[in-house]
Specification:
Strand content: 5-15%
Shape: flat
Helix content: 40-55%
Distance between the termini: 60 Å
Number of helices: 25
InterPro entries: BglG_antiterminators, HTH_11, Mga_HTH, PRD, PRD_sf, PTrfase/Anion_transptr, PTS_EIIA_type-2_dom, WH-like_DNA-bd_sf
Number of strands: 13
Keywords: Activator, Repeat, Transcription, Transcription regulation
Protein name: Lichenan operon transcriptional antiterminator
């Protein structure tokens, strides 16, 4: 490869630039097309990736980053590639040329064509389809469906423990993260500031990044308004944390650094802070310009990537990060990130969104943002999706309790110790009227009589009793059941279709029903024309009728265009071979969706095997009633 003079010249030029160079700038320099530039990069990177590609253009990697990229090449899986293809098709709403896509992700068009077949199986549950018109690929479907798909892809990418102590320790070997975490928790508890595991990891990451920047570069030096959150515990805690770090590591937090540490501790990090920093109150502590700047950036992400980051807690923390990032960029005080290149490979979509934000920010503020800073934006985005995924499994709760002595903190600590895996306390307040975000609160634990809020409420004693715990547990069971049923219904709707649900269809025999239902599946493009023959062939081998009024005709092959279920429920039994049948369920399965469907299939068959369940399902008056009944029964399994 290196014998090629053009490629050697290309590498020499990139090395001399020692920075990102756009494809168009390279094309102008070498008097070739941008497609040729992409071909150069593809050829050079074929055996050993030494050129990094992003929306900033191309850049020759350092030795360290080449090692990181090489060690992670094995992670370049087909599933990751398909996710990147789907992402491109989601954001390019008018379609994308297959050759341009091929050059962008460095694979052949034939590979993309094969990936599209698999991708269509994956997007079918979202009622989407990738279609090809000549050389153009386009994702067809409703915008709301595309948003759901994008969130699903990113949630798959955001792994658990995104900000775990272990990962932070691997990043920054010069600091004892476990000891720092213990010190911070101790200081917060001393100041009656309760904190959960997610928030403490976020604070530790912020602290270590700040420490590393101060140690390797310079502190933030800027003129700040001296206004602080008045008389709250966060100021004391921030001072104690900064003093502890200075004594242990000799790293000095100046006034500006301490100010932002106070804001971090105030940004909904702690539960017992009545003056907690919110998006509304942020203007008193951070220049309005940066609040508006952050909101514009997140609006652009929403427009371009179909994802919504408009969570108040996230926006507050992200605004603080953007404010400091802009200052560092203008003063060339960069923060290093030792995991930048591995982060790019492990979380490619999260990283790309971060690159997009950085590019927009560069244009808005006329600054240059280094790659390590982009990686820190990725930490914020990844942590947001990790948090979102975590909260889906928990019930969100508020605690109402007067602040007499240590009553509040003792009550909250006991509740969290008992129910930490199933509930998330998002607010603690002495008065019911002080509750915020009541639309997010799923139930309230209170030591005071409260007016009706249309929110399930549990009354407990200030010094919580065994009976109080039981009352909370009983309500949690009911709320969890309700939440699970809704989740199951959403999942079922991927494979059930109201147009494939029918009542009281009376035909002569099993063969007539198989032909009728196969035609329905074919009309809706679930199966190919020959599907009926495959189902009849299976039926001849052995009847698919159960001895409890159910038949489940199906093909022996998983060759459906997409997975779907056609259902007929009859008030009166009909003849199916030697059996009498009331429920007929024809299941078409797509090979690529087998794993996704297996959970539904197993539960569904288990339900149909019980006579009492079948009896209940035959009472369904319409599709909605049937979905309610099946979801309720599946949740009980």
């Amino acid at each position: 490869m290196m014998g090629n003079q053009k490629l050697r010249a290309f590498l020499n030029y990139l090395e001399a630039q020692n920075d990102w160079v756009t494809a168009s700038a390279l094309a102008n320099h070498f008097k070739v097309s941008t497609r040729t530039i992409r071909n150069y990069v593809s050829a050079i990177n074929k055996d050993n990736p030494i050129i990094s590609a992003s929306q900033n253009g191309y850049k020759l990697m350092t030795t360290e980053s080449q090692e990181g990229a090489s060690s992670s090449q094995t992670q370049d899986t087909p599933s990751k590639r398909i996710n990147m293809i789907l992402k491109e098709l989601i954001i390019n709403t008018e379609g994308l040329d297959i050759f341009d896509l091929s050059e962008k992700i460095f694979v052949s068009t034939s590979t993309i064509e094969n990936d599209i077949v698999i991708a269509n199986g994956q997007v079918a549950p979202f009622h989407l389809k990738v279609k090809r018109r000549h050389d153009m690929l386009i994702l067809v479907g409703e915008e709301t469906s595309k948003r759901k798909l994008m969130s699903h892809i990113i949630s798959q990418e955001a792994s658990p423990h995104f900000l775990s102590t272990i990962k932070v320790q691997r990043l920054f070997k010069d600091y004892n993260i476990t000891q720092l975490k213990e010190n911070v928790i101790s200081i917060l508890e001393k100041n009656n500031l309760l904190i959960n595991e997610y928030s403490i990891n976020s604070i530790i990451l912020h602290l270590v990044i700040t420490m590393d920047r101060i140690k390797n570069n310079k502190s933030i030096k800027q003129n700040l308004q001296t206004k602080m959150l008045k008389g709250n515990s966060e100021i004391t805690a921030a001072k104690d944390i900064a003093d502890t770090i200075e004594n242990k590591y000799g790293i000095t937090f100046n006034e500006a650094e301490r100010y932002y540490l106070v804001l971090l501790l105030s940004s909904k990090t702690t539960l017992l802070n009545y003056q907690t920093l919110t998006l509304d109150s942020l203007t008193g502590f951070v220049d309005k310009h940066y609040i508006e700047l952050t909101q514009k950036l997140l609006e652009k992400v929403h427009e371009s990537y179909f994802i919504d980051l408009s969570d108040n807690e996230f926006i507050v923390k992200f605004t603080l990060h953007i404010r400091n990032l802009v200052f560092r960029a203008k003063n060339k005080q960069w923060s290093r990130n030792p995991l930048t290149y591995r982060l790019k490979d492990t979380y490619p979509l999260i990283y790309e969104i971060s690159v997009f934000i950085s590019n927009e920010l560069q244009k808005m503020e006329s600054i240059v943002i280094k790659e390590d800073e982009i990686a820190y934006i990725a930490f914020h985005i990844g942590a947001f999706f990790e948090r979102k995924k975590e909260l889906e499994t928990k019930i969100l709760c508020a605690v109402v309790c007067p602040n007499y002595y240590d009553m509040q903190i003792n009550l909250v600590q006991k509740i969290e110790a008992k129910f930490k895996d199933s509930i998330e306390i998002i607010q603690v307040t002495p008065e019911i009227d002080d509750l915020l975000n009541t639309d997010k609160i799923e139930f309230i634990i209170t030591t005071l009589p409260v007016k009706s809020l249309q929110i399930p409420t549990v009354f407990v004693h200030p010094y919580i009793t065994k009976e109080d715990y039981e009352h909370i547990q009983n309500l949690l069971v009911k709320l969890s059941e309700r939440k699970n049923i809704l989740k199951v219904k959403n999942y079922l709707e991927m494979f059930f279709n109201e147009e494939l649900f029918m009542k009281n269809i009376y035909l002569d025999n099993a063969e007539e029903y198989i032909k009728y239902m196969s035609e329905k599946l074919y009309e809706k493009k679930y199966v190919k024309k020959d599907y009926c023959g495959s189902v009849l062939e299976r039926e001849k081998m052995s009847s698919t009728a159960f001895n409890n009024n159910v038949a489940v005709p199906h093909s022996m092959k998983m060759d459906a265009n997409r997975t779907g279920i056609c259902i007929i429920i009859n008030d009166k039994p009909v003849k199916w071979g030697e059996e009498q049948i009331q429920i007929i369920t024809m299941i078409a399965i797509n090979q690529t969706q087998r794993q996704l469907f297996s959970q539904v299939f197993e539960s569904f068959i288990n339900i149909l095997s019980e006579w009492e369940n079948v009896k209940e399902l035959t009472k369904a008056i319409d599709y909605k009633d049937f979905m309610d009944k099946i979801a309720h029964l599946m949740d009980k399994i």
